[in-house]
């Protein structure tokens, strides 16, 4: 294993560990580890202990993954080693997350945390009659980057060499060269178009999805949720522009319009780092559903006497999966982490989507396993 491969392996393990370590802190206080609890139970000792135990387990798993992956990488190529270590670590961290959620659910059940409470759900019809508008003009930067990349690509198409670089290594100069063809040469621009389309469709669906409001404070949470959706839409388009900038840089390198070097690689990666920083800032200032936004005068006193209904029976795998045949919603706000969304696998459209996603995930895992064993279709 060379230094580049070792750096990539350890960096990936560190990134996965950091994300899973931060995941519980991104969720709303009333949804620790995907488990619904009343607001006055969010600071129970068992919840704090579950957080501490989970944090220790994630750190131990990260160290163990690094220690075990390095000798494993001696028997397989670097890319397969990174993929195998990542999949194994994510699976182990998921297990730690489920154990933490299980401990809280047991304490909630044994302690009767919802006993004597008035459970309810709330709806705000103004989200239908006066929905949050998607700021479509903010899609222009990402579209402009795509257009510029396409223009450069069309100009370069007639003079491309017979083979294109493999883009391996930190300087994007390693790896076997590949035959020039439409799909190989146009891949970055096609990726940009996909980013543009997926971002637009996802945001259009999200702003129309059912809002996640608190039955105890419906007015305050509705206001925060509106601000959350506006901020999320702005963030989504900004991230799309950053991703397209990185893909534009990859295109320039693939078409050999810029030389291979570490500074060029750094410039290509920089927009992604900027997007990550913007996403972190969003989660810290706005949070899932806008729960981190400051309250307006008088909002802190709002209390209907209700608590949000305990619907844990519809959530599975620690809040990653939602299955409710009686809920017509297709897209719902996920319980895990911050601003993630998932589909209702209990709805007909959700079941079809789930099957497609499962097929994609299983195919990716199979490819990773084959590469780890040194088996390929070539």
From TrEMBL:
TM region(s), chain numbering: 54-75, 82-104, 189-207, 232-255, 261-282, 355-375
KW ATP-binding (keyword) present: no
Keyword Amino-acid biosynthesis among record annotations: no
Annotated keywords: Membrane, Transmembrane, Transmembrane helix
Top-rank lineage group of the source organism: Bacteria
Name used for this protein in its record: DUF5808 domain-containing protein
Source species taxonomy: Bacteria, Bacillati, Actinomycetota, Actinomycetes, Glycomycetales
């Amino acid at each position: 294993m060379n230094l580049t491969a070792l750096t990539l392996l350890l960096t990936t393990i560190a990134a996965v560990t950091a994300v899973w370590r931060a995941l519980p802190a991104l969720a709303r206080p009333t949804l620790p580890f995907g488990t619904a609890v009343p607001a006055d139970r969010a600071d129970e000792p068992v919840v704090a202990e579950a957080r501490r135990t989970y944090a220790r387990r994630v750190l131990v798993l990260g160290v163990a993954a690094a220690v075990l992956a390095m000798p494993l990488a001696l028997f397989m190529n670097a890319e397969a080693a990174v993929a195998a270590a990542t999949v194994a670590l994510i699976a182990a961290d998921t297990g730690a997350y489920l154990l933490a959620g299980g401990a809280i659910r047991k304490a909630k059940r044994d302690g009767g945390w919802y006993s004597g409470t008035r459970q309810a759900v709330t709806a705000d019809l103004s989200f239908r009659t006066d929905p949050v508008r998607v700021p479509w003009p903010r899609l222009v930067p990402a579209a402009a980057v795509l257009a510029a990349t396409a223009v450069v690509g069309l100009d370069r198409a007639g003079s491309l060499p017979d083979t294109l670089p493999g883009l391996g290594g930190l300087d994007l100069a390693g790896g076997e060269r590949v035959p020039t063809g439409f799909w190989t040469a146009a891949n970055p621009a096609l990726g940009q178009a996909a980013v543009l389309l997926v971002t637009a469709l996802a945001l259009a669906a999200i702003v129309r999805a059912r809002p996640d409001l608190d039955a105890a404070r419906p007015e305050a949470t509705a206001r925060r949720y509106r601000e959350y959706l506006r901020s999320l839409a702005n963030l989504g388009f900004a991230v799309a522009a950053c991703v397209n900038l990185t893909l534009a840089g990859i295109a320039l390198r693939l078409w050999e319009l810029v030389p291979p070097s570490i500074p060029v690689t750094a410039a290509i990666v920089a927009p992604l780092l900027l997007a990550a920083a913007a996403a972190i800032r969003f989660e810290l200032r706005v949070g899932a559903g806008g729960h981190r936004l400051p309250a307006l005068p008088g909002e802190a006193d709002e209390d209907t006497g209700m608590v949000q209904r305990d619907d844990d029976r519809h959530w599975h795998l620690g809040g990653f999966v939602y299955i409710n045949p009686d809920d017509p919603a297709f897209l719902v706000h996920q319980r895990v982490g911050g601003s993630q969304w998932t589909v209702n696998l209990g709805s007909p459209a959700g079941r079809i989507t789930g099957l497609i996603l499962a097929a994609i995930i299983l195919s990716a895992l199979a490819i990773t396993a084959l590469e780890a064993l040194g088996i390929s279709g070539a």
